[in-house]
Amino acid sequence: MTTAIFPSKLFIGACWHSDLADCFTGAVAYSGDILDDFAASKRGPTSPDVVVEMGMLVEDRASHFCGDVVRWNAEGVTLQDRNDYVRHFTWKPGGFLIEGKPVTLVRPATATAATQRITASGSVAGDGRARVAAASRIWVEGKHDAELLEHVWGDDLRELGIVVEPLHGADDLATAVAEFGPSADRRLGVLLDHLVPGSKETRIAATVRDPNVLITGHPFVDVWAGIRPKVLGLDDWPDVPRRDERGSDVPWKEGLCAAIGVPFDGFWPRLRNQVNTFADLRPELVGAVEQLIDFVAE
């Protein structure tokens, strides 16, 4: 048998003590729990709470995206950078920087009353009374885009009297905008799919030059991909080849259904109905839509 022998005295500073008392000229006592201190040291420094305000310049620590606060709700905060690009971030401890210092952004202390209903977009629902349709409009590319906006932002849009209309294709956007006749009292917001450098949609957007028209978009080839795949239990949407084995073009939606092994017919309603709140959407899509709503509601 091996016996471990430990000294009965502790060495503190320059002297030995058996009772941790009266070291040098003062008493030495330790009332804390060393395990608690160790756990605290592993957690790292805490960040101060800062109440979010409109126009506050904030940087997301994870992505380094920096912009002004333009919106917030129960789920998170929306930032807009100097290029008017908008991104949505969830509330997270120590997740942001203000003037280079880590902070925890928090919502104002005023709480939503228990009788108030929160919409799928995270806003407080209005009184439910119908509003006369405003002159301003939001255009989207197709039927599914319009249905998704209604599904998530329908309460907000009805409260503001904003109508969403599908374009059924944006190839002749400049002509459609001219016929609409935008003005300061008749604003137009347009949501485009696949708005990335070099895409057809980006070239279409460049043909419209009007201060009363705002065109935003998301980087996805279709609005379906703007829904988080986790709503169907998937980690990611599969890559869909542009052409099949015979060299024929593969429509993205049909290719997606084939890749995940589901029939194309009836898939969209199933996918849409799995969306409960805007948190089930990708932040690029959320930011683009909310920017349009703010623009046409001004």
The number of helical elements comes to 7
Task: Let me know the number of strands.
Answer: 13
What fold name goes in the CATH topology slot of one domain? Dna Topoisomerase Vi A Subunit, Chain: A, domain 2
The secondary structure category is alpha/beta
Q: Strand count, sense and closure of the main sheet? A: 7 strands, mixed
What is the terminal-to-terminal distance? 83 Å
Low-confidence stretches: 1-31, 111-116
- Helical coverage, percent range: 10-25%
Shape: globular
Oligomer: single chain
* SSE sequence, one letter per element: EEHEEEEEEEEHEHEHEHHH
Amount of beta strand: 15-25%
CATH class of one domain: Alpha Beta
| Cα Rg | 28 Å
Reading side by side through the largest sheet, how are the strands ordered?
Answer: 3-9-8-4-5-6-7
**Average predicted local confidence, pLDDT:** 81
Please state the second-level CATH architecture of one domain.
3-Layer(aba) Sandwich
